[in-house]
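Technical annex, item 7. During the second reporting period the consortium partners agreed on a shared format for inverse folding records so that results from different sites could be compared directly. Each record opens with the tokenized structure and is followed by the designed sequence. A conforming record, contributed by the partner at site C, is shown below for reference.
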């Protein structure tokens, strides 16, 4: 017998013929015909309509409460106020149970979460075949600590991510080399000397900010805008250096090519 308070308020329909139990022990009573009409992922062999048997699902109640709303002819849930962890769980459940009416809206909202948690979005995109979203999310993951990526990146795609990361690392090395290659012999705008004495300091300033992690290449404006302000006499050389890096970053293959 289900304890009082452990039955879904929304999905406790009196004529329901299928009963599910969430991972946190909440009962959901729904209609088999709605599952059959709106999804392809609930195995018929696991469901005996009208038997009173309870089918256990691996998702928590909060996820199932959203999921089952998509199998009924009603206004769909508003996802604008849902935090990314719950949205991610819903998106995974939608794909798992193939609830087609929810796939596109979940894809849109997951894509909107790129800035907040690009690694979660990247995992979702590569697992479920959304290369456009994967290509947008992947560059943002380069800035994350390697330990975090190692812990949370789906293991099937970790090799792909490391190869992609390697391409960014190569660009960082080229950025360093370009900084040493570029010369600056213009008249100094600060001291009026024929050879600018500030270029070495400007170059050192940028090299320090570039650091050792390729994720910094996502924020070149911060690095070079600061240098422009400190060393206006070297601005043309700095712009040339920045443009070189921008072009190289744009040439990095899309993440989908590493899958």
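Designed sequence (site C submission):
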């Amino acid at each position: 017998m289900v304890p009082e308070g452990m039955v879904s308020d929304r999905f406790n329909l009196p004529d329901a013929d299928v009963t599910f139990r969430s991972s946190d022990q909440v009962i959901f009573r729904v209609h088999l015909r709605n599952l059959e009409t709106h999804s392809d992922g609930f195995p018929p062999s696991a469901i005996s309509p009208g038997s009173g048997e309870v089918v256990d699902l691996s998702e928590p109640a909060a996820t199932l409460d959203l999921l089952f709303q998509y199998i009924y002819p009603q206004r769909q849930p508003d996802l604008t106020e849902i935090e990314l962890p719950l949205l991610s769980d819903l998106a995974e459940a939608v794909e798992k149970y193939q609830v087609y009416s929810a796939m596109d809206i979940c894809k849109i909202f997951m894509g909107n979460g790129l800035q907040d948690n690009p690694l979660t979005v990247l995992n979702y995109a590569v697992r479920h075949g959304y290369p456009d979203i994967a290509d947008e999310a992947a560059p943002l993951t380069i800035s994350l600590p390697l330990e975090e990526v190692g812990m949370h990146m789906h293991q099937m795609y970790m090799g792909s991510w490391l190869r992609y990361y390697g391409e960014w690392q190569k660009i960082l090395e080229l950025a360093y080399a370009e900084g040493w290659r570029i010369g600056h012999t213009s008249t100094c705008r600060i001291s009026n000397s024929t050879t600018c004495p500030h270029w070495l300091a400007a170059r050192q300033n940028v090299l320090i900010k570039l650091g050792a992690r390729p994720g910094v290449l996502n924020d070149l404006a911060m690095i070079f805008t600061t240098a422009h302000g400190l060393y206006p006499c070297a601005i043309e050389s700095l712009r040339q250096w920045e443009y070189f890096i921008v072009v190289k970053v744009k040439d990095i293959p899309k993440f989908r090519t590493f899958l």
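The CA atoms of residues 98 and 249 lie 37 Å apart. The mean pLDDT is 89. All partners now use this format for quarterly exchanges.
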